[in-house]
Amino acid sequence: MFSLISYTKMENKSEERIAISNRRARFEYEILESFEAGIVLVGSEVKSLRQGKANLQDSYALVKNGEVWLLNMHINPYEQANQFNHDPLRTRKLLLNKSEIAKLQVKTNEKGLTLIPLKLYFKKGNAKVELGIGKGKKLHDKRESIKERDVTREMQRAKHV
């Protein structure tokens, strides 16, 4: 029989906790489809991610030789790791099924589509990355997004007043 304390601990482990999100990606790209991928990390990277010290701003993913790689993701060095620290900008391998990799390969070969990491989070103790297949927005699309955001903000203000 479970006690109340152990039940809440089990419940908390199943929920996901967002460590880092790439808010700019949704503004710069129109996201067509998204995938969840595991990420191969070293210990000091995990510790640094749990502290929220990473940046997805200029990162992107590539499909190379049947594997998916995440490039330009910056994870700050962990202060207590001293000489065993990691390279902040190293290329990291993403873990996906073969069928998902094949689908991503086909999609990224199309003109104008790219793989962008949208958020990095922990799910059941494992680090996960949400990848989005994105198509770059033109300047007028970005202006339209800003206009829609402003209109919804004004509607929210009017509703609360």
Describe the secondary structure blueprint for this structure.
Elements: H1 4-14, E1 16-21, H2 23-28, E2 29-39, H3 43-50, E3 54-55, E4 60-64, E5 67-71, E6 74-75, E7 92-95, H4 98-109, E8 113-123, E9 126-136, H5 139-160
Descriptive overview:
The chain is of the alpha+beta class. The protein has a single domain (17-160), classed as Small protein B (Small Protein B, Chain: A, Beta Barrel). It is 37% helix and 35% strand. It has five helices and nine strands, in the order H-E-H-E-H-E-E-E-E-E-H-E-E-H. The strands form two sheets. Strands 1-8-9-2-7-5-4 form a seven-stranded antiparallel β-sheet. A two-stranded antiparallel ribbon has the order 3-6. It is globular, with a radius of gyration of 19 Å. 20% of the residues are buried. Residues 1-11 have low confidence and may be disordered.
Summarize the structure.
By secondary structure, this protein is an alpha+beta fold. It contains 5 helices and 9 strands.
Strand content: 35-45%
CATH class: Mainly Beta
What is the domain total for the residues? 1
Biggest beta-sheet profile: 7 strands, antiparallel
Low-confidence runs of at least 5 consecutive residues:
1-11
CATH topology grouping: Small Protein B, Chain: A
CATH architecture classification: Beta Barrel
* Computed CA radius of gyration, to the nearest angstrom: 19 Å
Question: Percent range for helical residues?
Answer: 25-40%
Question: Which whole number gives the mean pLDDT?
Answer: 80
Distance between the termini: 50 Å
General shape:
globular
